[in-house]
């Protein structure tokens, strides 16, 4: 079982949309996949067609109470969801006084090792304990950035946290699988220039695939299906399939 996390402390950069599409694309390739909603906003739960308000058990319960990881099938064949709701906000808080508080998600996910080939974790827009838990559980991390955040400076806090997780010994093997650009607007020269600068700055870390701004993502989200499933022939879906090729290559390194 390979575990990948999608994280970035900045809000609204496409983490959830990317998690849903990456998880769905891997599942559609015939692998058993669990998508974990680790954000109390429950956006991934919503994006996969469920109402977070109706969710009673989350990854937080598996982390803190030793209950089994809650999973439910989605409309995407081969893809299960571990859903989230507001209740997950308590987990962050309850973890604080615990010894080894960074390792609870890793331990909870051990229980499903035999059930899935891949786990894809969607993180909240913060570098709090839930995100740290995701980074400790994961073998590889993928980071979406918008053109506005296209700089090493914009990624500084995240890169520093990754180093802390690695060097602090929490997860020495954590691989920064790649950084990819979302909400790209290919039409403007300025966008291309900043993207070029990022590539100069961060080199190989920047993935070749870019996700452009497409209304199809909004429609898909409203339909509770990743675009890769809702509109498989769209450019939006093609872009995510290309990204997933790269994710799989890089995560398997
Ligand atoms: N490539 C895209 N083109 C157009 N809209 C997009 C694209 N990617 C995501 N969106 C939309 O933008 C909004 C934010 O995206 P998303 O929820 O994936 O970001 P996020 O990083 O997970 O946000 P948060 O930090 O709040 O968790 C959503 O409404 C989503 O449908
Ligand atoms: Mg999100």
Identify the notable features of this structure and list them briefly.
253 residues; alpha/beta; Rossmann fold; 8-stranded mixed sheet; 8 strands; 42% helix; 17% strand; binds adenosine-5'-triphosphate; binds magnesium ion
Question: Can you tell me about this structure?
Answer:
It is built from eleven helices and eight strands. Helix 8 links the parallel strand 7 and strand 8. The two termini are 14 Å apart. The longest helix is centred in the C-terminal third of the chain and has 17 residues, at 235-251. The protein is 42% helix and 17% strand. Strands 3-4-2-5-1-6-7-8 form an eight-stranded mixed β-sheet, with helices on both faces. Helix 5 (104-110) packs across helix 6 (129-137). The chain has one domain: 3-Layer(aba) Sandwich (Rossmann fold). Adenosine-5'-triphosphate is lined by residues 11-17, 39, 41, 43, 125, 182-183, 211, 213-214, 217-218, 221.
């Amino acid at each position: 079982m390979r575990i990948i996390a999608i994280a970035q402390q900045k809000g609204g950069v496409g983490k959830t949309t990317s998690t849903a599409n990456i998880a769905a694309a891997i599942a559609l390739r015939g692998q058993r996949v669990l998508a974990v909603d680790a954000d109390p906003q429950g956006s991934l739960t919503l994006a996969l067609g469920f109402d977070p308000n109706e969710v009673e058990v989350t990854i937080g319960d598996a982390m803190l109470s030793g209950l089994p990881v809650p999973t439910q099938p989605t409309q995407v064949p081969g893809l299960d969801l571990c859903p989230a709701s507001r209740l997950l906000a308590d987990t962050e808080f309850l973890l604080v006084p615990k010894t080894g508080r960074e390792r609870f998600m890793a331990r909870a996910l051990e229980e499903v090792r035999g059930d899935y080939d891949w786990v894809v974790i969607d993180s909240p827009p913060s570098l709090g304990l839930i995100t740290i838990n995701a980074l400790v559980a994961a073998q590889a991390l993928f980071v979406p950035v918008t053109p506005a955040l296209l700089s090493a400076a914009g990624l500084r806090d995240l890169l520093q946290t990754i180093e802390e997780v690695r060097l602090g010994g929490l997860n020495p093997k954590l691989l920064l699988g790649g950084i990819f650009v979302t909400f790209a607007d290919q039409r403007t020269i300025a966008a291309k220039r900043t993207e070029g600068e990022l590539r100069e700055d961060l080199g190989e870390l920047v993935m070749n695939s870019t996700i452009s701004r497409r209304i199809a993502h909004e429609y898909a989200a409203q339909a509770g299906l990743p675009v890769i499933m809702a509109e498989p022939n769209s450019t939006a879906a093609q872009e995510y399939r290309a990204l997933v090729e790269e994710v799989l290559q890089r995560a398997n390194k």
